[in-house]
């Protein structure tokens, strides 16, 4: 479904919000022992990151998520609100702890291990979404991340379909991506990486093979997806629609922290398409946003802007 709404309509984003704990070692990783390195924390969560990126690009973003009644939850909601995201419909759960994401990076910034602990996402129930029904009626688009429980995913997509709201899906991880399999026919945009795309496709998607990634994107389109965009890290992005397909090379950049780069691509792609920027250029802007986020300390680049993204491409 192609959106018919204007830029005055908010984008509804539903899914995870968490505290990110990122550790980057100072030299080669030595397993089964302590490694010297640098630790940092920042607010994160796929849905929350996408909402903040959209807000920093000047879009109205409404986040539906859940956090605990702990200091971490207060930080997540406070910093997200300060970035311009509407968090009024987020749940603050008494007696619960806020979700967390732990990443271990090597000295080149490559992810070696990621650990999700998202207990509060289960509290985003179909009943809660129905209580937010007016948000679907107002939305220019719906963004969901695959952290949502299967019944909640189905409810969100059903509410979007009933209100003719196009759906953008963030696959989040290999294990969670499979939750989207029954809903491919209802998705306007999906943005997996190669491994997540392979979880949704009948054939392997080898790393660094643009032609096979295009084949995977075309398969997803054949299952009903409007636009399939597959990120390939330093090997760029492959994409397909019913009418076209292609591959765009990555921008070479230093990697400070890969956390949130895919979320920046998804948010920027959506921003560009809602502003009637052609798909090829929208993908390039998404790659620009991902590259800028890779160089940033934090899950979202606080200086993100359309001007900065075009300057990156030059």
Q: Tell me about the biggest sheet?
A: 8 strands, mixed
The geometry reads as globular
CATH-level-2 architecture of the domain at 11-16 and 46-91 and 122-165 and 251-313? 3-Layer(aba) Sandwich
How many beta strands in the DSSP annotation? Answer: 14
The number of helical runs is 11
Percent helix, as a range, is: 25-40%
Q: What topology, given as strand order, has the largest sheet?
A: 4-1-9-10-11-12-13-14
CATH topology of the domain at 11-16 and 46-91 and 122-165 and 251-313: UDP-N-acetylmuramoyl-L-alanine:D-glutamate ligase
Decide which structural class fits the backbone.
alpha/beta
* Low-confidence sequence ranges: none
Strand content: 15-25%
In the CATH scheme, the class of the domain at 11-16 and 46-91 and 122-165 and 251-313 would be: Alpha Beta
- What pattern of helices and strands is seen along the backbone? EEEHEEHEEEHHEHEHEHHEEEHHH
How far from one another are the termini? Answer: 32 Å
What's the oligomerization state? Answer: single chain
From the alpha carbons, calculate the radius of gyration and give it in angstroms. Answer: 18 Å
> What is the arithmetic mean of pLDDT?
95
For CATH, the homologous superfamily of the domain at 11-16 and 46-91 and 122-165 and 251-313 is named as: Ribokinase
Summarize the structure.
This protein is an alpha/beta fold and 314 residues long. It is built from 11 helices and 14 strands.
């Amino acid at each position: 479904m192609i959106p018919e709404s204007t830029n005055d309509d908010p984008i509804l984003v539903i899914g995870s919000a968490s505290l990110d704990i990122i550790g980057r070692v100072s030299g080669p990783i030595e397993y089964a022992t302590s490694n010297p390195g640098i630790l940092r924390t920042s607010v994160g969560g796929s849905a929350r990151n996408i909402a903040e990126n959209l807000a920093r690009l000047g879009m109205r973003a409404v986040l539906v998520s859940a956090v605990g009644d702990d200091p971490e939850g207060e930080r997540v909601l406070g910093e997200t609100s300060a970035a311009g995201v509407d968090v009024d419909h987020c749940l603050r759960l008494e007696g619960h702890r806020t979700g967390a994401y732990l990443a271990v990076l090597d000295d080149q910034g490559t992810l070696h291990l990621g650990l999700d602990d998202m207990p509060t996402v289960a509290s985003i129930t179909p009943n809660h979404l129905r209580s937010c029904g007016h948000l679907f009626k107002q939305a220019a688009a719906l963004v969901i991340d695959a952290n949502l429980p299967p019944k909640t995913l189905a409810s969100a997509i059903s509410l979007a379909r009933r209100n003719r709201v196009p759906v953008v899906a963030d696959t989040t991880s290999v294990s969670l991506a499979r939750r989207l399999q029954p809903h491919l026919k209802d998705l306007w945009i999906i943005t997996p990486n190669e491994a997540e795309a392979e979880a949704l496709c009948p054939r392997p998607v080898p790393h660094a093979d643009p032609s096979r990634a295009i084949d995977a994107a075309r398969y997803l389109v054949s299952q009903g997806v409007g636009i399939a965009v597959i990120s390939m890290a330093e090997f760029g992005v492959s994409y397909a629609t019913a009418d076209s397909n292609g591959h765009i090379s990555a921008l070479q950049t230093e990697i400070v922290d890969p956390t949130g780069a895919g979320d920046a691509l998804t948010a920027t792609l959506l921003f560009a398409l809602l502003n009637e920027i052609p798909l090829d250029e929208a993908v390039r802007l998404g790659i620009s946003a991902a590259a800028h986020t890779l160089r940033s300390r934090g899950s979202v680049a606080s200086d993100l802007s359309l001007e900065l993204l075009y300057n990156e491409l030059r």
